[in-house]
Specification:
8-stranded antiparallel β-barrel; alpha+beta
């Protein structure tokens, strides 16, 4: 009786490991990922001391950054749309020889229709470091695979900077680039060090992922 129970346990355990191994997510190539949508991942708002130039993190409900989610979304979508009208990364195809094909295009809104017009293609070597993908020709790209390997997250860095002008008025403007650092404090310190004469009131650092889905 004990022998039968032990044998049954071994069989069930074997089935468990077999199913787990079969169901485990892997990065299968060749594979193509196409741009799907943007997603606001994180937001950090700092109030800047005009004397010390040090930043103190605050919540979004304080100060001049009391903005609704819809207002933030509208602002980001307008910037993204204008960027895509000029040029954007549309798809990435990974090949078995450790090369990747990156296809770029521009958004054509003529006639109230949104159409992607291909503009260029680039072939580059790539490597994986954990879930991070490194491209030889595009070292500035910060792209991660999600744990299911079904999506890529192309990190974008938006900073909304509220500047105090000599007239006493405030001037607020968005700046956008590829992500430069995963630590918002490092991003903030870089902004302040590169603009030592500018007096900032508040700075919002917003990480947006351009999501690419596997097809």
């Amino acid at each position: 009786m004990n022998y039968s129970r032990t044998l049954l346990n071994i069989i069930l355990l074997s089935l468990f490991f077999a199913c787990s191994k079969e169901g485990a997510s892997t990065f299968v190539i060749p594979a193509t990922y196409r741009y799907n949508s943007p997603n606001l991942e994180n937001k950090y708002v700092y109030v800047i001391d005009p004397i010390t130039k040090n930043g103190r993190i605050i919540t979004d409900s304080l100060g001049t950054f009391n903005r609704s989610n819809s207002e933030i979304s509208d602002s980001l979508n307008e910037i993204i749309t204008n960027e895509f009208i000029n040029k954007s990364l549309r798809s990435i195809t990974f090949n078995s020889d450790n090369t990747a094909k990156l296809e770029f295009g521009r958004l054509d809104t003529t006639g109230m229709k949104n159409t992607i017009i291909p503009t260029s293609t680039s072939i580059t070597k790539y490597s994986l470091s954990g879930n991070k993908i490194n491209f030889d020709e595009y070292p500035e790209y910060f792209i991660n695979l999600n744990n299911s390997f079904l999506e890529l997250n192309f990190c974008q860095e938006f900073t909304l900077r509220n500047q105090k002008l000599p007239s006493g008025l405030n001037f607020r403007k968005y700046f956008k680039t590829n992500c430069t650092n995963a630590e918002p404090n490092a991003v903030l310190n870089n902004i302040l060090s590169l603009n030592p004469t500018v007096i900032y009131d508040t700075i919002s650092i917003e990480y947006v992922n351009y999501i690419f889905s596997k097809y």
